[in-house]
Amino acid sequence: MYNYKTLKPEECEFIAIAGVGDLPPGERLFVEIDEKSIVVFNIAGQYYAIDDVCSHDGGPLGDGELDGMEIVCPRHGARFDIRTGRVLSLPAVEDISAYPVMVVQDEIQIGLPIE
Q1: How far apart are CA 51 and CA 40, in angstroms?
Q2: Kindly report the CA angle at 57 between 4 and 25, in degrees rounded to 5?
Q3: pTM for this structure?
Q4: What is d(CA 39, CA 20) in angstroms, rounded to the nearest whole number?
Q5: pLDDT computed for residue 2 by the predictor
């Protein structure tokens, strides 16, 4: 997987997914973009987007418990950093994708790489 947040803005296509009011602090939003399941978090007004798929077994990740900036997979307990997608604990060994998020005129946008 890849941390797309390392790409320059011009290397991404930003897609509007919701208004700022649709994702209050402490909440998460599930979206489907180009057949990718993505979960977006609002942590104290900062937005983070990662794949909604655990790299351990392909199960859903977004419903897991948040522990600071870590999400815990609800199936087997693997942990991932929601800022980078980096795997932090077994049984997962592979990172998940993280995406840049920006707000433009009260609209939350996720950046996907231009192909």
Answers
A1: 9
A2: 50
A3: 0.93
A4: 15
A5: 67
